[in-house]
Design brief:
By secondary structure, the chain is of the alpha+beta class. The chain has 2 domains: 2-81 and 224-258, no CATH class; 86-220, no CATH class. It is 23% helix and 34% strand.
């Protein structure tokens, strides 16, 4: 009975972690560029009372064994980098990535971070920065007399300055791609950091080598589907409830056993 209790307890703990992941997904349903996570589980070690294929009598092997599982554990929370819905904003500095790839951002300590959130703005010097003031990499500076900013699908940034009819190119947005984006480390504020699991960033022009294209005046929204998350919430709650029933059943059996005398 004690084994049943501890096994069911691992199930309750796993479902608690899954509901934490679901809660984070739902709380970021309106976060630009957010990618939902998925909790992944593995069964624990088994106690082998009798191994499959052992001999029962001479020349006869048992077709199945006798193994008792010890429960479940959470082994990963994997980011799902599916495309989010596009929301039209009309803002010249809102840029969505259609396809794979990440914007590059220079952090205050000089390291590189990566993001799918395309809600850019300008600082007091005209640099294109995030809402936290971190500069895009490579840096792009918009002249103070610019009256119109145009971003091409290939990342070319052009401006039309006051008193001029023709536009002039001022920079090139580059995207970074990873062989395993699920291996990136989430560090908050819509940022990811490379790890040995993600591999090194492959930086280049949007639209080439598997990198997506850019769309100006749009934002990629969260890829969280509320209905799917609500279904996950219900199934997780029921699984948690079933495991708690196992503990109650084991407790009832132990109580009945103690009353036999």
């Amino acid at each position: 009975m004690i084994r049943a209790m501890s096994t069911a307890a691992t199930g309750m703990d796993a479902q608690q972690q899954r509901i934490d992941v679901t809660a984070n997904n739902l709380s970021n349903v309106n976060t630009a560029g957010f990618k939902k996570s998925r909790a992944e589980f593995q069964d624990l070690l088994y106690q082998s009372v009798r191994a499959p294929g052992t001999s029962s009598v001479q020349g006869v092997r048992v077709p199945t064994g006798l193994q008792v599982g010890q429960g479940v554990r959470t082994v990963a929370t994997q980011k799902m980098f599916t495309q989010g819905d596009m929301a039209q904003t009309g803002n010249q500095l809102d840029i969505a990535v259609e396809g794979g790839g990440f914007f590059q951002v220079t952090m205050p300590d000089g390291t590189q971070s990566y993001t799918r959130a395309g809600n850019w703005t300008l600082d007091d010097t005209g640099r294109v920065v995030t809402s936290d003031g971190f500069a895009m990499e490579p840096a792009i500076t918009v002249p103070p007399d610019a009256v119109n900013v145009t971003v091409g699908t290939d990342g070319t940034v052009s401006v039309q300055q006051a008193g001029q009819e023709d536009s002039s190119e001022i920079g090139q947005i580059q995207l970074a791609s990873f062989i395993n984006p699920a291996g990136l480390e989430s560090i908050g504020r819509n940022f990811y950091r490379r790890t040995s699991a993600s591999g090194n960033p492959q930086v280049g022009q949007p639209g080439l080598e598997g990198r997506g294209t850019l769309t100006q005046g749009f934002l990629e929204m969260s890829n969280v589907k509320v209905v799917e998350e609500m279904i996950n919430l219900i199934s997780t709650q029921r699984a948690y409830e079933v495991n708690s029933k196992v503990i109650q059943a084991a407790d009832e059996m132990m109580r009945n056993t103690s009353q036999l005398g």
